[in-house]
Automatic annotation (TrEMBL):
Pfam families: Amidohydro_3 (PF07969)
Domain Amidohydrolase span(s) in chain numbering: 95-399
Protein name: Amidohydrolase family protein
Coiled-coil region(s): none
Source species: Paenibacillus illinoisensis
UniProt xrefs under InterPro entries: Amidohydro_3, Metal-dep_hydrolase_composite, Metal_Hydrolase, Metallo-hydrolase_Enzymes
Top-rank taxon: Bacteria
C-alpha cells in the first residue's frame, strides 16, 4: 500500500506506460504498468499522460511583478525600465510586496513549478523589505514550493551607496545566494571582488545578471568564468541574460562558451525580457538579442530558461508559466524539432535543477515526489499545447487541482492553505 499511485503514465518519449508509487513524500517505485503495487490511498489514472518532475523556475523577480497598472508610461530601453521601476519602488509597502509576490508564486505553482529562485532587490530604496518578504514566503509556503532567495543589488553595489552593508545584512538574514549585476557598476573588477568575496565569506553560490545587451563588447561573462575557475567555484555560479554573446562572431562566442563549460557556469536565458528590450538600437534589421542557446548547447554549457519578470516595465507580458517562455524560445531560436522540444523541457527541469544545485531531483526512486502530470503524451505536445490542465504534487501532496483558470480566484483569496490540500480518491480526466 502506497500513499499515491499514478497509473499508466508516460515518463519519456519511448511512450512506455508506467505506474509510479509515492510513499512518505518520496517516489517509492516506478514500474511497467500493472507490475508494481496496486493498492494506494489515492489513485490517479493518467491514461497515457506525460509525467514530468516538477518544473524549476531558475530566475524570477517577485516584488516587482504586476506593476502595469501603476506605471505612468512604458519603457523604451533597459535603463528606462530600471528608472521607471526605481521610481515606483519608493512607494512599495511591505503588504504590497507580499501580495504581489504571493500572486506570482500561486500562479507558478499552479503551472507546475515546485522549485524557484527569486532575486530580491537589496538597495537603499527598498532596504531589506523585499528580502524579508521573500524569506517569509520561503518559510510559509515551504510545503508548496522550495524557494531560493538571491540578495540582488539591482541598483548597483557602488553607485548606490549603502548597498554593500545591506547586501551583507541580507546574507546574515538568510539569503541563499549572492547576486550580482555587472552592468550597474562602473568598475567590473570591483563588482566581482565584492560579489565573489561575499560568496566566499558566507559559503554561498553566485547568480549574476550580466551582459544584458546586444553590444558584442560586453563580455563580463568571460571575467566571471575566469574568477570562477580561480576561486574554485565551478558548478556554483549562474548567469542570467548573457545576450551580448549572441552578437559575437561565432568563433569568438564559441571560445567563451568553452570557457563557461570549463567553469561549470549555468546560463539562464530570459527570452521574454531579452526579446522585448534588446535590438532596439538597430535602425534596420533589429537583432533578436538572445543568448545563443544552440551554440551553448553544442559546447555542453548547462542552459536553463527563466520567466524573469511578469507584467512590469522590463516585461509587460507573462503569467509565470515556464512553458510559455520555452515556447517563445523555441519559435525565436529555430528550435522546432522533436529533439529541440526534449531539450527545451529539460531546460525547465533537469538543467534548471542543476543550475540551482538542487539535490536528489527528478523522476527516480527515492527522490521527493515533486511532479507535474499532463494530459498530453509527449514533451513536444506539452510544449506546443501549453495546456491549462496540469496536476501538480509537492512531496507527494497535490498542490493544484483547478487549472490556471482558477488563478484570479486564487489571487483574490487570502487563505494560504488553498494550495496544499489533498484530494481523496481523485481520478484524472474521467471523460477522456
Ligand atoms: Zn532578472
Amino acid at each position: 500500500m502506497v500513499d499515491l499511485l499514478i497509473t499508466d503514465t508516460v515518463l519519456s518519449k519511448d511512450g512506455r506506460q508506467m505506474d509510479v508509487g509515492v510513499s512518505s513524500g518520496k517516489i517509492a517505485f516506478i514500474s511497467p504498468s500493472g507490475e508494481g503495487i496496486s493498492e494506494a490511498v489515492h489513485v490517479v489514472h493518467a491514461k497515457g499522460g506525460l509525467l514530468l518532475p516538477g518544473l524549476v523556475e531558475p530566475h524570477i523577480h517577485l516584488e516587482k511583478a504586476y506593476l502595469l497598472d501603476v506605471m505612468d508610461r512604458d519603457a523604451d530601453s533597459l535603463q528606462d525600465a530600471i528608472q521607471i521601476t526605481a521610481k515606483l519602488k519608493s512607494s512599495f509597502t511591505d503588504e504590497d510586496i507580499y501580495e504581489r509576490s504571493l500572486a506570482v508564486i500561486r500562479q507558478a505553482v499552479s503551472n507546475g513549478v515546485t522549485h524557484m529562485r527569486c532575486h530580491a532587490e537589496v538597495d537603499p530604496i527598498l532596504g531589506l523589505k523585499a528580502m524579508e518578504s521573500a524569506l517569509h514566503l520561503k518559510q510559509t509556503l515551504r510545503h508548496q514550493l522550495d524557494l531560493q532567495v538571491v540578495a540582488f543589488p539591482q541598483e548597483g553595489v557602488f553607485r548606490s551607496p549603502g548597498t554593500e552593508e545591506l547586501m551583507e545584512e541580507a546574507l546574515r538574514m538568510g539569503a541563499d545566494v549572492v547576486g550580482g549585476i555587472t552592468y550597474q557598476d562602473e568598475c567590473l573588477e570591483d563588482h566581482l571582488d565584492f560579489a565573489f568575496g561575499l560568496a566566499e565569506k558566507y559559503g554561498k553560490p553566485l547568480d549574476f545578471h550580466t551582459d544584458f545587451s546586444d553590444n558584442p563588447n560586453d563580455r563580463a561573462i568571460a571575467d566571471i568564468a575566469r574568477r570562477t575557475l580561480i576561486t574554485g567555484m565551478q558548478g556554483q555560479v549562474s548567469a542570467g541574460h548573457v545576450t551580448s554573446l549572441g552578437s559575437l562572431p561565432e568563433h569568438e562566442a564559441m571560445d567563451i562558451a568553452e570557457l563557461l563549460h570549463r567553469a561549470g557556469i549555468s546560463v539562464i536565458t530570459l527570452p521574454m525580457t531579452d526579446l522585448f528590450l534588446n535590438g532596439r538600437g538597430d535602425a534596420e534589421g533589429p537583432r533578436r538579442g538572445l543568448a545563443p542557446v544552440k551554440l551553448l548547447q553544442e559546447c555542453s554549457v548547462n542552459v536553463a530558461i527563466g520567466v524573469n519578470n511578469i507584467r512590469n516595465a522590463f516585461t509587460p507580458f507573462g503569467k509565470a508559466d515556464p512553458l510559455e517562455v520555452a515556447w517563445l524560445l523555441a519559435v525565436t531560436s529555430y528550435m522546432g524539432g522533436e529533439r529541440d522540444a526534449l531539450a527545451l523541457i529539460r531546460m525547465l527541469t533537469y538543467n534548471a535543477a542543476q543550475a540551482l544545485g538542487i539535490e536528489n531531483y527528478g523522476m527516480k526512486v527515492g527522490a521527493p515526489a515533486d511532479m507535474v502530470l499532463f494530459r498530453e503524451r509527449s514533451e513536444r505536445d506539452v510544449l506546443l499545447d501549453k495546456p491549462e490542465t496540469r496536476m501538480v504534487w509537492k512531496s507527494g501532496v497535490q498542490v493544484q487541482q483547478y487549472g490556471s483558470k482558477a488563478i484570479e480566484w486564487l489571487r483574490k483569496s487570502q487563505a494560504m492553505d488553498i494550495i496544499g490540500t489533498r484530494v481523496k480518491g481523485m481520478k484524472l480526466w474521467r471523460n477522456s
